[in-house]
């Protein structure tokens, strides 16, 4: 009845989504801030009335926002789900109301028939790219790695951990010796890196840091410098997002590599919703965005200039 209901909606209106509710996680990282900016710009371009809510990284606030959008009778809902579990009942309510839900940049464990599609990167592949970079660039011999994980229970934290472990399988010398969440924030990355350095008696026994996002890496770089250690040399640093400030760090030699994540998840999401609500075309369940690796040899200042005004 969901598809029939949507088909009826198409017959009765035939118009693209006019009012869309966006349940955003928060502004925990530069990348998240850019995603919000780009989503608002894409909505503006399409004449969409975008209703926005910032959940301050709390799932209960996202669930309340979705319920509010359902009560408002919006045409569609965008959801960037802070964690992967606990969405079934609220997604059922949106389905009952025949309001299509599109997931942005993270996945949920709920059944696929509870959302129209998901727009995001291959999060496991991103971790594999980071791991392979370390295999290709580590110093001779043993390489003890510390890992700053993303928000516990989020699909990027789960998948980027899995992918990195696969990526380093190419080298017996690499060992992950400490792993802890920094919650995708700069302050979290700094605090946890300080504790890693303390626990390891300084940086001599740490060969590399793998951070699930650039903001945690940037916080960790501060901690490493304050400990009198040279980031990017004494401790290699690889992370993910490709935010402008990581390119400044790479240009300074304080970081080594980042894997790009586009902040434009909304463009493909709005296009899929338009096709669905106007012509009843159901999209594939996953619309994948590309990831590219940037290192010190890739003109980091040009990459910084290209991104610095995009709302990070
Ligand atoms: C990944 C996205 C992550 C970013 C972080 O798709 O969910 O959330 O990598 C952000 O910067 O906090």
TrEMBL record:
SUPFAM superfamilies: Periplasmic binding protein-like I. GO terms for cellular component: cell envelope. Pfam families: Peripla_BP_4. InterPro entries: Peripla_BP_I, SBP_2_dom, YtfQ_transport. Coiled coil: none annotated. GO terms for molecular function: carbohydrate binding. Residues 20-276 form the Periplasmic binding protein domain. It comes from the Bacteria. It is found in: Cell envelope. Keywords: Signal, Sugar transport, Transport. Transmembrane segments: none annotated. Belongs to the bacterial solute-binding protein 2 family. NCBIfam families: YtfQ_transport. This is Simple sugar transport system substrate-binding protein. It comes from Sagittula marina. The lineage of its organism: Bacteria, Pseudomonadati, Pseudomonadota, Alphaproteobacteria, Rhodobacterales.
């Amino acid at each position: 009845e969901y598809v029939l209901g949507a088909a009826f909606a198409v017959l009765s209106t035939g118009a693209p989504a006019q009012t869309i509710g966006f349940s955003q996680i928060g502004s925990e990282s530069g990348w998240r801030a850019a995603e919000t900016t780009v989503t608002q710009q894409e909505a503006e371009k399409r004449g969409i009335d975008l209703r926005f809510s910032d959940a301050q990284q709390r799932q209960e606030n996202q669930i309340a926002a979705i319920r509010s959008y359902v009560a408002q009778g919006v045409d569609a809902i965008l959801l960037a789900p802070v964690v992967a579990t606990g969405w079934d009942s609220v997604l059922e309510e949106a389905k009952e109301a025949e309001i299509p839900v599109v997931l942005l940049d993270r996945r949920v464990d709920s059944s696929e028939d509870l959302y129209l599609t998901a727009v995001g990167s291959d999060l496991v592949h991103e971790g594999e790219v980071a791991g392979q970079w370390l295999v290709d660039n580590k110093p001779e011999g043993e390489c003890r790695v510390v890992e700053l994980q993303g928000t516990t229970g989020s699909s990027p934290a789960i998948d980027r951990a899995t992918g990195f472990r696969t990526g380093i399988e190419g080298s017996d010398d690499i060992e992950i010796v400490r792993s802890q969440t920094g919650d995708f924030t700069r302050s979290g990355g700094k605090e946890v890196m300080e504790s890693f350095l303390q626990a390891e008696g300084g940086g001599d026994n740490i060969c590399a840091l793998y951070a699930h996002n650039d903001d945690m890496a940037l916080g960790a770089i501060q901690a490493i410098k304050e400990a009198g250690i040279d980031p990017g040399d004494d401790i290699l640093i690889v992370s993910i997002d490709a935010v402008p400030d990581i390119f400044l760090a790479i240009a300074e030699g304080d970081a080594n590599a980042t894997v790009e994540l586009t902040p434009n998840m909304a463009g493909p999401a709005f296009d899929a919703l338009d096709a669905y609500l106007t012509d009843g075309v159901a999209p594939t369940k996953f619309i994948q965005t590309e990831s590219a690796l940037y290192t010190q040899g890739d003109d980091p200042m040009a990459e910084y200039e290209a991104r610095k005004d995009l709302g990070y």
